[in-house]
Automatic annotation (TrEMBL):
GTP-binding as UniProt keyword: yes
Identification of the protein by name: Translation initiation factor IF-2
Ranges where the record places region Disordered: 50-293
Domain (Tr-type G) ranges: 401-575
Keyword GTP-binding appears in the UniProt entry: yes
Main location (coarse class): cytoplasm
Organism expressing this protein natively: Demequina litoralis
Name of the encoding gene: infB
Biased composition (Basic residues): 277-286
């Protein structure tokens, strides 16, 4: 490769190509054109032919090309020739250039060196001599491609290639890349070198490829540090350099050169080497930065963020683990983030909606807590039960008329209970059946309407509380509400509450104006009052039916039932499919001593049969027997037919929906799943929400207080109502009211044990403690309270909570003085000349002026004197003058008592 071309030699000699060609032709060498290559002997001839020119131009000429070329493709072909022309110097300097070559030494070098080497080498040698001598003392270098800046006399070793040492030195050098065509490799082994004995051959290789590489290495020692840089890879080249070592001075250097090997090089080059490293780092850093942007860290953890509207659905009582699963992160990360938001929670703790919302908005997610109904629907879907779809799919042919279901509401004492009794008695069938003997929570009566026998089902739990509690559970039981208003009392607060609840539930209302038998009853006034609430009587042009009744005397009951039926027929589609598995609602339930859990259910659709596997809320079982309100055993219940069911393993709650499952196992699984969901939701509700900040503070100040309650009642409706009412008590933020357990039946040992563990108070409603339970409670110091009126229980709990909020003070009498004489002073008002009878009278104390046992005023002791001197206190047995400020209503004989407010220690 490195055969020089005519034009190159011409340039070197400072003559035109044409002249050179002419000359050579003259000398008998046939040369075709400027691009023709020349063999070494021919070149020699040419140089001999133009001796003068050569000396003149040689130096400069080579410099350029050399520099240029190597730079570009160092290892490349060019080098060969160039070097020839460009003597030694360049070599030294250029090493730098070669370095770069290193990076691509592989290919180039390989071949080139081999052949190129020979010639150039030869030629170079001679050529080099001169320059070398001048510039570099150390001539070593006939290095071809390297141009040489002159001022850098570096001893230029020889090109690795033809340096005899090269091989050897190389040997030791760590051989960088194994590369097949890596010159070094070839060299090393010896073949090349060996063959090259010629130095030339072997060297070459070094030169080109190796050179590059080598160069740097050697260089380093040299202090070329910087240059090499470009060289980069050169390292490998290192081999070359090895050479230098050979050459003495540099010797030491080589070592570094040795370093040739890749990374090592860097070190050898100092700064240069560092660069690449730095580059890599920054790349990594950049990536990290990018990732940071993607997922900002909160509290040191990175969490993929939502875009602010990413919807995440969670069930009630979900935990951080549930949330983490949805966004695919480690739950611990969420714990950390929440912690930084000021809340502490474990990954498996049920959290309330507010906490999830705060966490979600922080992370860019919109958290949607699935409603209980929806959750239950999803739960049932897992069992292939979709009640809504089932209902929607029913055809007219499948639907049959059913009885309307009615709830009686109204203000206290307006006659709800009495009305329900009257209706029961009015039942046309009762006579034959022996009357309604069972209170099962609902009953059905029959009446003749327009010649037909019609049934109406009444929920036997008056009041909107139960109605609302059921609704809250998603049960739409009531079709029509009878609003009872006493004609002698008028519309009262609960009347309005009741009608609001009914209207909110979209339940039509029939107004029963009761107690019309009473004197002073004014039914018209009721009609008029209710128009304000959108209940306009038909006779006034509205669409609400008002019926005057006397629950006491049983008057107007038939009309009321008729009004109910008319209202139902007018606006309600009361039909259901009786030919399928039953679905409905539990309206009442309790634990019966003999029969276990009993529940009164109302079938909404389908037919409930004895033997059915049933699940009601979290209770399940198999229908062992059913009874109606007449205490008759029945084998099946059709829509709107209330029956008392026996066979459940636990007591459901009023308002729990029930359904018949395919088999016992399914019923149990549904119940268990509901139970789990319920527990989670309860946990979330109960969780004390307190910020981290407040938490510490509250702890320090001993302000963390929770009133734990256990509620037991005779029927689930009462327990529900009591629980709801209790939870509505506004107790502020400092105290938490928790109902840790509720149930139907007597207070048991288990209840007391639970209360002992959680420091709870037991509230019993219409129940008594079971045997020996009172004893246990006394022993354990558990407070049990029993009520038969919900209101009283509420009052007590509220008072107790307030007590926890505010310390209680009581007056403690400090002293007492009797007024013996009255001095009138224009400046101080009346002064009571008194004798202290008990204790001590102090200035500024609060006082009570008592006359004949009656407190007539509570002034403050503003002035207190012993004779003419002010005193701060006067003890019993002494006389003093007491000024009560503006309170001048005193008489001789009055007693002035002073007292302090003393905090009553809580037991
Ligand atoms: N004179 C008269 N008294 C009635 C009538 N209806 C009810 N009462 C009386 O009113 C009082 C209250 O009746 P209840 O049926 O207990 O009233 P309630 O609305 O069920 O009361 P709570 O259960 O406390 O909400 C009783 O003393 C009844 O005897 C009526 O039509 N005429």
């Amino acid at each position: 490769m490195a055969k020089p071309r005519v034009h190159e030699i011409a340039k070197e000699l400072g003559v035109s190509s044409k002249d050179l060609i002419g000359k050579l032709n003259e000398l008998g060498e046939y040369v075709k054109g400027p691009s023709s290559t020349l063999e070494a002997p021919v070149v020699r001839k040419a140089r001999e032919a133009f001796p003068a020119a050569k000396t003149a131009s040689a130096a400069p000429a080579p410099a350029k090309p050399a520099a240029a070329k190597p730079a570009v493709k160092p290892g490349a072909p060019k080098p060969g020739p160039k070097p020839a022309s460009a003597p030694a110097e360049p070599v030294a300097e250029k090493p730098a250039a070669p370095a770069p070559a290193a990076s691509k030494p592989g290919p180039r070098p390989g071949p080139k060196p081999a052949q190129a080497a020979e010639k150039p080498a030869e030629q170079a040698a001679p050529a080099a001599e001169k320059p070398a001598a001048k510039a570099a003392p150390k001539p070593g270098a006939p290095k071809p491609n390297v141009p040489l800046p002159s001022d850098m006399p570096r001893p230029r070793p020889r090109p690795a290639g033809n340096n005899p040492f090269s091989d050897r030195s190389a040997g030791p050098r760590p051989r960088p890349r194994p590369g097949g065509n890596n010159p070094f490799q070839a060299n090393r082994p010896g073949p090349r070198p060996g063959g090259g004995g010629a130095g030339g051959g072997g060297g070459r290789p070094g030169a080109p490829g190796g050179a590059r590489p080598g160069a740097p290495s050697g260089t380093p020692g040299r202090g070329f540090g910087p240059r090499p840089v470009g060289g980069q890879g050169g390292p490998g080249g290192a081999g070359g350099p090895g050479r230098p070592g050979g050459f003495g001075g540099p010797g030491g250097r080589p070592a570094p050169g040795g370093r040739g090997r890749g990374g090592g090089t860097a070190g050898a080059f100092g700064r240069a080497g560092g660069k690449p490293v730095r580059g890599r780092k920054s790349k990594r850093a950049k990536r990290a930065e990018y990732e940071q942007q993607q997922a900002p860290a909160i509290g040191g953890v990175q969490i993929p963020r939502g875009d602010g509207s990413t919807l995440i659905r969670l069930r009630r009582g979900a935990t951080l683990t549930d949330f983490a699963e949805k966004i695919d992160v480690n739950p611990a990360s969420l714990v950390t983030v929440l912690f930084h938001l000021g809340e502490m929670a474990t990954a498996t703790q049920s959290l309330d909606e507010g906490t999830f919302e705060a966490l979600g908005s922080e992370l860019g997610y919109v958290i949607q807590i699935v409603s209980p109904e929806e959750e239950d629907r999803e739960l049932l879907e897992d069992f292939n039960i979709d009640i809504e779809a089932e209902l929607a799919a029913e055809t007219d042919e499948e639907l049959e008329a059913r009885a309307p279901i009615v709830t009686v509401m109204g203000h206290v004492d307006h006659g709800k209970t009495r009305l329900l009794d009257s209706i029961r008695k009015a039942d046309v069938i009762s006579g034959e059946a022996g009357g309604i003997t069972q209170h099962i929570g609902a009953y059905q009566v029959h009446t003749t309407h327009e010649g037909n026998d019609r049934a109406i089902t009444f929920i036997d739990t008056p009041g909107h509380e139960a109605f609302t509690a059921m609704r809250a559970r998603g049960a739409k039981v009531t079709d029509i509400a009878i609003l009872v208003v006493a004609a002698d009392d008028g519309v009262m607060p609960q009347t309005i509450e009741a009608l609001n609840h009914a209207q909110a539930a979209n339940v039509p209302i029939v107004v029963a104006v009761n107690k019309v038998d009473k004197e002073g009853a004014n039914p018209a006034k009721i009609r008029q009052q209710l128009t304000e609430y959108n209940l306009v009587a038909e006779e006034y042009g509205g669409d609400t039916m008002f019926v005057d009744v006397s629950a006491l005397k049983g008057q107007g009951i038939d009309s009321l039932l008729e009004a109910v039926l008319l209202t139902a027929d007018a606006g309600l589609d009361l039909r259901a499919n009786p030919n399928k598995d039953a679905r409905g609602v539990a309206v009442e339930a309790h634990l019966d001593k003999g029969r276990g859990a009993v529940a009164t259910v109302l079938v909404n659709s389908g037919t409930l049969k004895v033997g059915d596997a049933i699940v009601a809320g979290t209770a399940y079982g198999r229908v062992r027997a059913m009874f109606d309100e007449h205490d008759n055993q029945v084998s099946e219940a059709t829509p709107a037919r209330p029956v008392m069911v026996i066979g459940l393993t636990s007591v459901p709650r009023a308002g729990d929906t029930f359904l018949v499952a395919d088999d016992d196992r399914t019923a149990r699984q549904i119940a268990e799943k509901r139970e789990a969901a319920e527990r989670a939701a309860q946990l979330a509700k109960r969780r004390k929400r307190i910020s981290l900040e407040d938490f510490n503070k509250a702890l320090e100040e001993g302000k963390v207080d929770t009133l734990n309650l256990i509620i037991k009642g005779d029927v689930s409706g009462a327990v529900e109502a009591l629980e709801d009412a209790l939870l509505q008590i506004d107790v502020g933020d400092e105290v938490d009211l928790r109902i840790i357990h509720r149930g139907v039946g007597a207070v048991t040992q288990n209840d007391v044990n639970l209360a002992t563990v959680d420091n709870a108070i037991i509230i019993g409603f219409n129940v008594r403690p079971a045997e020996r339970v009172q004893e246990l409670a006394d022993r354990e110091g558990v407070d049990m309270r029993f009520y038969s009126v919900i209101y009283r229980a509420l009052e007590d709990v509220e008072a107790s909570l307030k007590g926890m909020l505010k310390p209680e003070f009581e007056e403690k009498q400090v002293g007492g003085a009797e007024i013996m004489e009255i001095f009138r002073s224009s400046k101080f008002g009346n002064i009571a000349g008194s004798l202290v009878r008990t204790g001590v009278i102090r200035r500024n104390a609060k006082a009570k002026v008592v006359r004949n046992g009656v407190v007539i005023g509570e002034p403050t002791i503003e002035t207190l004197r012993r004779f003419k001197d002010d005193a701060t206190e006067v003890r019993d047995g002494y006389e003093c003058g007491i000024g009560l400020g503006k309170f001048n209503d005193i008489q001789v004989g009055d007693i002035i008592e002073t007292f302090e407010m003393v905090e009553i220690p809580r037991s």
